[in-house]
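[Q] Does anyone have a clean structure-token version of this?
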Amino acid sequence: MEKENTQLTISLTLLLVSVIFGMFVPFALAQPTADSIGVEHASGYKNNTVSVPVTISNTQNGPVTCIIFDVSYDNNVINVVDVKKGTITTSWKSPTYCNFEWGTKVSIAYTGRDVEAIPNGTSGIIALLKFRVVGESGEMSDICLNNLQLSDLSGENVGFDTAPATNGTFTIVTNFTQTPSSTGSPSLTVAPTEESEEDGVAITPTDTESVIPTATSTIKPSVLPATASPVKVSPSPISNTSSAPTATSTVTPSPPGFDAIFAIVGLLAVAYLVQRRRKA
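[A] Here you go.
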């Protein structure tokens, strides 16, 4: 009897473990994730504002409705002054962020409508980090993402650090330098750096600040020599149409009495016809 009770207890224990495992494993396997979340290399000039996109690649186990992450950097080189929505979160709430000594914590979520959730297999920009460049030319700072959190529609399944982070480096570009041009006048050029090859790409049709200012050439109008005499153009005379003679047609009058002769001949012919009829 005691042996049967022991076997029954073991069976119930295994059944309970199986039920618990079956309840929690699906949630663990269904945590939202992505192939990667991160930033690329960026650069800019001192005292300028630079937008750095945070991208996500191939979302899975979603749809994703909330994204939270920390971004660490050197406050002596760059500072986050604003965070804006990305191209795939335009209908979401405005991001919230808080600056710390180590960097910035960012949170962005949808407004509660399921149609706004990021579907599986989506890639794009989730947020724009706007940095103010405060360091000196040539200084660099790592931009590292960590403590990533992705939430799905239920709000209960949250993926913690399930998406690998891709980090970047920010470099402060050397100021403009003057180099002689072929015409002898100086032109503004940017000193080349390895990290600034792909910088300067516009992120959105509303982002007005430039990542890397581009030098523009100035075209000076040509000036005539002092010895050149101005060309005088004399206006051609315009004839006065009012003084031009006008042609008038003259009508030659018929000789006097010509109409009277035709009238008399007509009367004589009528009288002759009448006289002839009476004789007949």
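[Q] Thanks! Anything notable?
[A] Residues 3 and 9 are 10 Å apart (CA to CA).
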